[in-house]
Each structure stands twice: as structure tokens, then as C-alpha cells.
Design goal:
The protein has 473 residues and is mostly helical. The chain contains 19 helices and 2 strands.
């Protein structure tokens, strides 16, 4: 049996970083909790660096083939670590000096470790471990950073998580009974000959847990409530990082069970369509910017599920999923970081005149919202273009049209937000805080994430043109 624990070095670094922050933070005075934040940042940087090196190497497996170290795992590790690092920037302004500051950093690192495990799992038992490690710290993060509203949001998240976790483990039990094992390679060989109804029950159970982590239909109800009720740190994290591991895990599972049975690709297409339409339509009526972004997250999960429907049918399916995850994550962080810099403005109308009073924040918000719509040359535009292309190549032309239609639908509710940003300030409007102070870190994070969204989009567009040109000739 080949264990090869060195292949899990990024996960080990982040996990040990969480332990150091958790134990060391107990001995630090409140005015020196920044040391815990620095340790957490170093752990994330170290994990991202090690993971980046694995991207250039061959695909390998650890722990007797139950954990894959391949392109998907490497990309998910880098994205999860870098985005959590940006979340620390949001946290620096919101929870700096709070009694639970180091505890929050430790929980963020533990949840990130679970996300990385989810992304690389090629065994259903390892998938359960990743699910629990990514879920349990999340409940604490939501409760610690949101006050009374955060406690309610944490309870709703916990109840949905408990239900979906039970369904996931029940699904694993059914698939184990059918296949005689939990390894994905074994499932791929044995499930085609198993009773279709039993396979369907098992796979749907596992998908239920993963869709909870992703925030997709039908286990999406907790996302808007948690995004609105908790603090900006938790809201930014829960709408970005868990999706990285969950959606890569969904892709691996669907690619495994769809061998000889393309009906699961159609199920993924239906889930993508439902998430896109429900998230976009529900966002129309929202006046709280964080709740609007919560429903936007549900819609974005639909876009991210589009390449899953093309798994095994298009060579562009997995690359488009990984790129979209990175593009969406940095763009979403930019939007939430703006709300963290303006914590008192909890209505869309309250952003009236932001571009005049704080032009930097106004520009970052504009880039973030246009990015979420999918406007060129921003990164999400390239993500939507590649996912729609993958769906088209995979034989789901109607799904590519659904992507275009929902992109247009989303434009209208994002307009409700950034239209006041460039309007003339009202005389009785709540003023915007001056530069500096606790809002400096979230504002800087918003600017950095917005620049990253623009830079990734421009670079990807150039590479697309360079690589596609010779192929077309």
C-alpha cells in the first residue's frame, strides 16, 4: 500500500497552520492578534506555492488511490489558498482586535483544508471526511462573526448541513452496497451493471451533500440568509471557497457515474439551469447588497455546473470549470470586500454617490458587478464563454443558450446596485467613511481583487486569441 503523505503537503501545511494559530492565539494579547493573522497568511502562501509546483508535474495518487494529485486538485488548492488569503484581508478590517480573532483565522484554515480534501477525493469515504472538515468549521465562522443575526444564520446553515450530510452518507452507503467498495475506479466498473434505481438513489444522495457545499439548487436556501446575517468575513468565505472543492468533487463524481450512462450529464444540465434561473430571479427583489450577492452566488453555481454537463464529452469541460472557479472567486471577493468597507450601508440606495465620495471603491464595485455579469474583458466573461463552448461541444446547445439568457437577466439586478453608485449624492444620505481606519484593509482587498479580475480576464483573452488562431487555420 502506497500512502505517500508528502503528496498532501499543501493540506498538511494549512492544517498545521490552523493548529498553530488556534493554540498560539490563546496566549496572545488582543492587541497582538495580528501575529495569528500573519501565521495564517504564511501557511496559505506556503500551501499555494507548493500546490503550484504540483501543477507542472504528472498526475499521481496518494493513500492507495483514494486521493488524486492532478491538475484539478492542484488548481483547486491554489484557488482555495489564495482566496482565503484575500478573505484574511477582509477580516483584518472587520474582526481585528475582537475576542475571537485568532479562533476565526483557525476555523478559516480548517475549512480550507476540508475544501482541498474535497477537491482531491477519489474515494467516497475520503469525500465524507472532506465534507465534514469543510462544513463544521463553517458553522463556527458564521456564528462568531455575525452577532445575533449570525447565530440564526449559523443555525440555519447547520440544519441544512446536517440534512445534506445525512443524505450524502446514506448515498455512500447505497453505492458501497452496490459496488462492494468506495473507490471511484471500482464504482466506474461496477455501477453500469447495478440496478439503475438504486444507483440513482445513491448518486443523488452524494450530490445532495456536495450541492449544499456549493450552494446550488435544491440545497441553496441557507446561502442568502447566511450572506445577509453573518459578518462580511464569513459571507465572503462561504460564497467562494467551499464552492471550489465542492464543484471539483461534483465533476469527479459525475464523470465517474456517467460512464455508459449519459443521463447523469443531463441531470447536471437540469441542476445548472434551475440554479441559474432561480438565483437570478430571486435576486431581483433584494435590497440588501449582501443578500443580493447571496442569490447571485446561487446563480453562479448554475453557471459553474454547466461544464459538468459536458464531462467526458468536451476537452474544454474541466479547464473551463477550473478557470471559472478562479475568475468567479476573485470577482466575488471584490464585491463583498466593498460591502465590508462600508458596513453601515445595508441598502442598495445607501450606495448613492459612492463614485464621487470614494472613487476607488466605486470603481472596484463597478468592476466586480460587471465582472459577475460577464462583461468583457473581465475574467468571468472568459469563464462564461468557455463553459458555454464546452456545453455546445458536449451536445447541449440549449444549455449554452441558457447561459447567454441568464447573463442578460443578471444584468438588470446588478444595474439596480451600480446605478446609484454613479448618481448624485442625496442631501440626507448616510455619509461614506474617510480613507483609512478599519475599512482600509477591506478597501485594499476590493481593489486588489478587482485588478486581479481584470488582469486574469485580459490575459486569458490574449491566450485564447493566440492559441485559437493557429487552430482555426
Amino acid at each position: 500500500m502506497q500512502m505517500r503523505p508528502e503528496l498532501l503537503l499543501p493540506e498538511i501545511i494549512v492544517f498545521l497552520g490552523a493548529l498553530v494559530v488556534l493554540l498560539g492565539g490563546s496566549f496572545l494579547p488582543r492587541n497582538r492578534q495580528w501575529i495569528a493573522r500573519a501565521v495564517a497568511a504564511l501557511a496559505l502562501l506556503g500551501a499555494a506555492t507548493v500546490a503550484a509546483f504540483t501543477l507542472v508535474g504528472p498526475a499521481q495518487s496518494a493513500f492507495s488511490g483514494t486521493f488524486a494529485v492532478d491538475t484539478a486538485t492542484g488548481a483547486a488548492r491554489v484557488i482555495a489558498a489564495v482566496i482565503t488569503l484575500l478573505v484574511l484581508g477582509v477580516a483584518s478590517g472587520e474582526i481585528s482586535g475582537s475576542p475571537r480573532e485568532s479562533d476565526t483565522y483557525a476555523l478559516l484554515l480548517l475549512a480550507t483544508t476540508g475544501v482541498m480534501v474535497l477537491a482531491g477525493a477519489t474515494d467516497l469515504l475520503v469525500l465524507i471526511v472532506g465534507f465534514l472538515l469543510a462544513s463544521i468549521p463553517l458553522y463556527g465562522i458564521i456564528g462568531l462573526t455575525g452577532g445575533r443575526a449570525g447565530a440564526e444564520a449559523a443555525m440555519k446553515t447547520y440544519l441544512m448541513g446536517a440534512l445534506s450530510g445525512i443524505l450524502l452518507m446514506a448515498g455512500v452507503t447505497v453505492l458501497y452496497a452496490l459496488a462492494g467498495g468506495t473507490d471511484y475506479a471500482l464504482l466506474q466498473q461496477t455501477l453500469p451493471a447495478a440496478p439503475a434505481a438504486a444507483v440513482g438513489a445513491g448518486v443523488l444522495g452524494v450530490l445532495s451533500g456536495l450541492l449544499f457545499k456549493a450552494g446550488g439548487v435544491p440545497f441553496h436556501f441557507w446561502v442568502p440568509d447566511a450572506a445577509q446575517g453573518t459578518g462580511a468575513t464569513a459571507a465572503t468565505f462561504l460564497t467562494t471557497v467551499p464552492k471550489v472543492g465542492a464543484l471539483v468533487a461534483v465533476y469527479r463524481l459525475v464523470a465517474t457515474v456517467s460512464t455508459g450512462n449519459d443521463s447523469w450529464l443531463f441531470v447536471a444540465a437540469l441542476l445548472a439551469t434551475a440554479s441559474m434561473f432561480l438565483g437570478n430571479l430571486a435576486a431581483y427583489w433584494q435590497t440588501d447588497p449582501r443578500r443580493l450577492l447571496g442569490w447571485s452566488t446561487v446563480a453562479q453555481v448554475g453557471f459553474l455546473l454547466v461544464p459538468v454537463a459536458a464531462a467526458g464529452r468536451s476537452d474544454l469541460a474541466l479547464p473551463s470549470l477550473l478557470f471559472y472557479l478562479a475568475a468567479y472567486a476573485v470577482t466575488n471577493v471584490a464585491a463583498f470586500a466593498v460591502t465590508a468597507a462600508l458596513p453601515q450601508h445595508r441598502e442598495l440606495a445607501g450606495y448613492r454617490g459612492l463614485a464621487r465620495s470614494r472613487p476607488g471603491l466605486g470603481l472596484a464595485l463597478l468592476v466586480a458587478l460587471l465582472g459577475l455579469v460577464g462583461t468583457p474583458p473581465l475574467a468571468v466573461f472568459v469563464g462564461k464563454l468557455t463553459t458555454a463552448t464546452a456545453a455546445w461541444d458536449g451536445g447541449y446547445g440549449w444549455l449554452a443558450l441558457v447561459v447567454v439568457l441568464n447573463s442578460l437577466l443578471s444584468l438588470f439586478y446588478y444595474l439596480r446596485w451600480f446605478a446609484p453608485v454613479f448618481a448624485r449624492p442625496a442631501q440626507d444620505a448616510l455619509g461614506f467613511p474617510e480613507r483609512g481606519g478599519p475599512a482600509a484593509w477591506p478597501a485594499a482587498t476590493a481593489g486588489l481583487a478587482a485588478v486581479a479580475s481584470l488582469g486574469i480576464g485580459v490575459l486569458a483573452g490574449v491566450l485564447w486569441a493566440v492559441l485559437d488562431g493557429p487552430l482555426a487555420m
